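Dear U.,

For the methods section draft, I wanted the exact inputs and outputs in one place so we can describe them consistently. I've listed the two proteins in the order they'll appear in the manuscript figures. Please don't edit the token lines directly; just add comments below if something needs changing.

First protein:
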Amino acid sequence: MLAHIPIIFFINISLVNTDSPDKFIVGFNIFLILHMATHIIYIKHKKNEFKDFISWTLIIGSGLSGAASLAFNIV
């Protein structure tokens, strides 16, 4: 769970210090999709702490939103 904390820092720094937020958004959408895939791959891992409904709603929701954004060019 603590591995997710630097993501917020990265998002803030990247959005503030970029000339083209569109490039960041595309990269972040790709990250969201890969993040969702990683959670799905490791769903049965014995140290997986993300098993409740709220966690999976956020994980799947963000991954699907990233995919939709890329698919429909919502930037």
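Second protein (the one for the lower panel):
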Amino acid sequence: MKKLLFILLLACGSNAFAQKYYTLTIKSESTSSTPFKWWLEVKYNGEYRTEVQSNYQGGADLEETFEIPVAREYRFYILPNYGIGGVQYAEFDNYTLEDVVYAGGEAGFIPREPYNNSPFLGYITIKSGKPHIQIQSSSTSICFGDEVMLTATPTGYSSSYADDYPANAEYYWYYSLNGGQTWSNPNIELSGLNTKFKIEKLIEKDLERDPSLNKGNILLKIGAKYSNITEFNDNPPISIDYHHCSPEITNIEYLPPLCTGGQVPNVTLTFNRNLTSVEQLRYFKIKRVDVKINPATNLPENIFVDYPFYGEGNPNNGLISSFEEKTPNIFTYTISNLSGLENNAIYKIEYQAFNNNKNMAIVDSSPEENFTYKDPVPLTFELEGLDPVCNNGLGFVKITAHGGSGEYYYYSVNGEAKISFANKTSVTTSIVNGKTVETRSGSQQIQLPTSSTTVHSITITDSNDCIEK
């Protein structure tokens, strides 16, 4: 009978004819509390030799741990002993290393007593087996775009793999971004004893969920897989610190537009260092952060504006190759005459650095530097004419202005002089949908010449010289 349940444990030590680098945990049990003896033979260089053995005394279940070598063939024996001087009967079964270590069920043996063919209810169950594997990386501190080599060496591998378990068939690497609390299957193929990877590919799905993971620490360990069961070696995982290695924005100075519908005059970015001669920022974007989540993908529906933008399909769109240094060791880049933003939307800056065309991580400005685009309230006004009472009398017009910024002005009738409203601007605030809304208004009455029927043109501005549109 073969039922199979095997997990992996670690192995070390040596043997006269094979290196030991698996540890098995084997459980002995008997439903009839009958004692028995069992042993495991290993075939090496064409012969079977006893490797481990146990005398089970009956009663409570017994779990024991043994070191075994890697070999091509194994053989288990079980010997019932009824303690009455009767027939002692041994039964064995052949196993491969896959059976012994990776099999994923129970390896149980039910010998039969030959006199009456009645079953002897004793079992041996291989509970677990785990390889002892030394793991190392080519570096423990890297830039986001660097390639890392991972090497795993099972203890005791011989110079020839002829008698060893296949070296690259069933080994897979796993990673953790939270100090080993949880482990993830890689989203790219990362298998074999010797392999290489880049952080950007390994954790790309994690970055979609949390862009701040573009720098931090990653732990890696190797697992051996067979029949959909993966168990890990017992050595400590590899720890690698990774950095995005890009210039970081330390400050964003946002100058809002002066008039409704106008362009943003300047957004000045300050960086913690200059670009080197072989570095560029690409895919530079002013990106909206207060966006809805797409229910189909569960990802943000990001709205962004490429900058600089020279025209559809231009390869220089979103490309920045130099900063300004107007003040020593203060490195800035200024976005000028920016348009295409949405009113009351919150924005951040996103970009990706390239070093000698090797891509680094996608970097966002910190949330503390987010800025809100507010389109100024448009300036509007109404006119109310007051005709003269008598021939050649005085005529008046009442101007009522709304919105805009600061105080209101009008130009004299001949258009030469800019005159402030005599009445100061009235400003009131109210709460609308949880937000403070400011309401501005002002009025002015002016006299018009009425020597003849005349069409008058009146221009109204605010403090920013905005006009009604």
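Candidate sentences for the figure legend, describing the second protein: Confidence is low (pLDDT under 50) at residues 1-19, 82-89, 102-119, 157-169. Residues 75 and 200 are 47 Å apart (CA to CA).

Thanks,
Y.
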